[in-house]
Amino acid sequence: xxxxNHPYMQxxxxxxxxxxxGALKEGEKLPPVRELARQEGVxxxxxxxxxxxxxxxxxxxxxxxxxxVANAPEVAPSGYDRITRVLRTGSVLSExxxxxxxxxxxxxxxxxxxxxxxxxxxxQVVRRQWHTGRGQQxxxxxxxxxxxxxxAAVPELLSTSTRAAAGLLLKIQQATxxxxxxxxxxxxxxxxxxxxxxxxxxxxGSPILAGAHxx
Length: 215
Fold this sequence. Notes:
Layout: H1 7-20, H2 33-40, H3 44-57, E1 60-63, E2 66-69, H4 79-89, E3 98-107, H5 111-116, E4 125-134, E5 137-147, H6 150-153, H7 168-176, E6 184-191, H8 194-200, E7 207-214
Antiparallel strand pairs: 1-2, 3-4, 4-5, 6-7
């Protein structure tokens, strides 16, 4: 895995964020390589590696006419992308994405979730299930878990309304006084089960990228 601290990865991250935030639109042409390298304060060689990385990830395309933001990028934002974006802009959604919340409830969780939250037998947590899309394409299915007492401070956690859903993290921070200090992404490839396939518009058994993001 490339070193995220390397200058070319830092440049790639800045350009990636501008694409995800909509500052760079689908189909938009990027400045010439030398000009973009000057804007980013790096050498042409370093910028070239940044653009190579973004092309591999599916964010840009390159031809004789120049470098362009990919139309309907195939890469959905990662957990890290969404968390950093909501802290910057107030929304977990990237440009052109929509969200539908299908479940928002207090439940007794599975043992795996109970152990993460250090719950006693019978304790409940907030479970929210939601999916994102762009046009007719589904880009992700998510289940998020919160301590039960958060629901008293932020009642929207138990609502399926999408009006405030994209910015719930900021509401939680404001209501609880907590701030994100660190996060962790665990991802792996596997086959979609029936529930996942239904929400993502895929056949059961289709390959997907599954993961967990912990704060």
